[in-house]
Amino acid sequence: MAELLDHGHGPVRTCIGCRKQGSRSELVRLVAQGSGSSAVIVDVRRRMAGRGAWLHPSEKCLALAIKRRAFGRALAGATETSAVEHHLMPGTPLVEAKAATGKPSKPESGSEN
Questions:
Q1: What dihedral do alpha carbons 52, 89, 19, 7 form, nearest 10°?
Q2: Which H or E run includes 16?
């Protein structure tokens, strides 16, 4: 038998990254910028018009949402997530963080310089 999550009396939303439910106050609302743009923006006040998607404010959920291509499905083709990355991880773009992990720990030439 499935357990019901107790989130108080507030609305329950599902994170597009981890697919777990949480209260509206625990998640960040995202919307497509509109006007033919593919940009996803953070709706800090949770009042912008249009369809919204919800995401836990964590690097893990953001990475899962990008990997699963959840932004494009939830927000009708919106795929540009740099504003979301900047909001959740100021100063560390996710693209650069992924590239840094792919560097070898030792120089390939064998030199110690």
A1: -80
A2: none
Closest CA to 97 of 68, 66, 73, 72: 66
| pTM metric for this prediction | 0.70
What residues contact 69, with CB distance under 8 A and at least 6 apart?
79
pLDDT band, residue 22 (cuts 50/70/90): very high
Measured distance CA(52)–CA(75) in Å, rounded: 7
Phi, psi angles (nearest 5°) of residue 72: -65, -35
According to DSSP, the β-strands at 40-42 and 52-55 are unpaired
